[in-house]
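Comment thread on ticket #2218

A.B. wrote:
> Attaching the input chain for the structure job we discussed in standup.
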Amino acid sequence: MLEARLLESKGLTQKEIAETIGKSERTVRYYLKQMPRPRKNPVRGSKVDPFKPMIDQILEENPSYNSEILFERLSKMGYTGKISVMKDYVALVRKQLAIQAVMRFETEPARQGQVDWKEFGKQIIDGIETKLYAFVVVLGYSRKVFVRFTTHMDQATLLACHVLAFEYFGGVPHEILYDNMRTAFTWDEEGVFKPTLRLLALAIHYGFSPEHCRVRRPETKGKVERTIGYLGHNFWPRMDGARLSLEELNTDVMSWLSKIDGKPLSDFNESRSERFAREKPLLTVLPATRFDARHEIPRAVNRESMITYETNRYSVIAPK
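C.D. wrote:
> Ran it. Output below, let me know if you need it in another format.
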């Protein structure tokens, strides 16, 4: 019926068009009233298409993965397209990840623990101004919490706090979730997070799997973040005006934890203690020996049987 439109454009009436093309006038009138449909352009494939599943997987694990490194990886695998095309797709995937609904998930008993630090800034602790931190662990199922106040946040302190937490719980969850703390995870040459050797040694000793939470995915470690917020606005104000001692802080916070253990959780109408009673028997049993979290620093003994550490000198007594 394209011919009918051509004849119409030449000024012919619908009756004349019908007679010319051998159709009824009604058919011609119906056709000429229809809007011309746009011609569909053929969909052309992109050079990035074969690599989209790989890009999706990488960004799912780390949405902020460096685009330059990603382009180099894809090029080695045969990608011959432009980096701008790849970046356009990366931007689309990141946008989709960002707008995904945050879905709350529950973990089965003993499956997961979540770890993080709470910083309290500079405080007067035992008469000395120093930075104060709180190491926090939450068991995913029962929400049972362990807190340890420290004046350091180095790797040795992190590992020692793990040991204390496991002994407090009387067992070990099957996996522990961490964020971007450098004392727990580092980047490898390809931009993938890997546990540090010392954390890996701790994990092997106690039989758990160290896991890195997904970047910008708050649901993955929301339990510990909510607990840290609760520690800050419920426990910490009780210390206002008090002379702070590290030993007393840790005694007080353990007393506070025993009280909140008995309070019903609004989401479950059960207390942490009730849920932990079901979770504890499923935790991995503690090993016979305790992990040595101390950081070894080699020092030379001089002729006077002395060693130097941080400008201080200490005598060394040889065993008899």
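A.B. wrote:
> Thanks. Noting for the ticket: The chain has a mean pLDDT of 84.
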